[in-house]
Amino acid sequence: MNAIKLAVLGLATVGLMTSNPMSAFAQTCNQPPPGDQADGNGASPTLGTRATFLSPPPPDYIIGADDILHVDFWGDETVSGDVVVRPDGKISVRLLNDIQAAGLTPVELCVAITEAARKYLEQPVVSVTVKQINSRKVYIVGMIGKPGPYNTTGPLTVLQLIAMAGGLHEFADKKNILVLRTEAGKTLHYTVNYEDLSKGRNLGQNIELKPGDTVIVR
Questions:
Q1: Which are the contacts of 82, defined by CB distance < 8 A and separation ≥ 6?
Q2: Residues 6+ apart with CB under 8 A from 61
Q3: CATH class of the 3-132 domain in this structure
Q4: pLDDT at residue 84 tops 60
Q5: So where are the chain's domains?
Q6: What is the residue-wise DSSP string for 43-108?
Q7: d(C-alpha 107, C-alpha 119), whole Å
Q8: Residue with more model confidence, 37 or 99
Q9: In the chain, what percentage of residues exceed pLDDT 90?
Q10: pLDDT digit string (tens) for 127-185?
């Protein structure tokens, strides 16, 4: 087993041992260093094979503020390390300084870092790992057990968020729960009748929430 296969196996094992495996996923945007040989099936053992051992983020995932990433430069641990996406959407990468990350997919960020690194490294091989997603938040306020922001890394409906937030207060208006959503600069609102939902009626109003949505319980 050559060195790169050992490295792939080791990184995969680390990914499986994280406390929240759903939040870790490696995507590599380029090929391994020259000299790596194809395996018995003719496939090149690229660093991207790590992704087969780790669970990916949501299909529509875009990097956002507060997300925690790991930027790895193959063969150069002095430049590699964890980074947090700042409120201005940028990350600080050793040697490269500030790189725009928010608004990009992990692969797009990987490409951007690789291009920037070519000024300093002869043949950079970069991978970007999503370690923790903190930017995909929904909010619930008002007459609810535990109001506040909640991270969502997958499908989440109004009923599921209410359950996560400890349920409605006794005197909450169960028939007029409001969902606010901003799209294309416009604020949309939806009304949810919790009493109907709890009785299995009008289930279509149990909409799937999107990052940035606010649920108001009055």
A1: 68, 69, 70, 71, 131
A2: 105, 106, 130, 133, 136
A3: alpha beta
A4: yes
A5: 3-132, 137-217
A6: ----GGGGGGGS----TT----TT-EEEEEETT-TTT-EEEE--TTSEEEETTTEEEE-TTS-HHH
A7: 20
A8: 99
A9: 61
A10: 999 999 999 999 999 999 999 999 988 899 999 999 999 999 999 999 999 999 999 99
What does pTM read for this prediction? Answer: 0.71
The number of residues making up the chain comes to 218
CA gap 54, 180 in Å, rounded: 34
**In sequence order, what are the beta bridge partners of 69?**
83, 130
CA distance 106 to 15: 16
Which CATH fold topology does 137-217 show?
Outer membrane lipoprotein wza fold like (3.10.560)
Q: Three-state SS for 3?
A: helix
Which residue, 7, 113, 107, is CA-closest to 57?
Answer: 107
Reported as a pLDDT band with limits 50, 70 and 90, residue 24 is low
**Sign of the alpha-carbon dihedral angle for 188, 194, 198, 200:** negative
DSSP SS3 for 209: coil
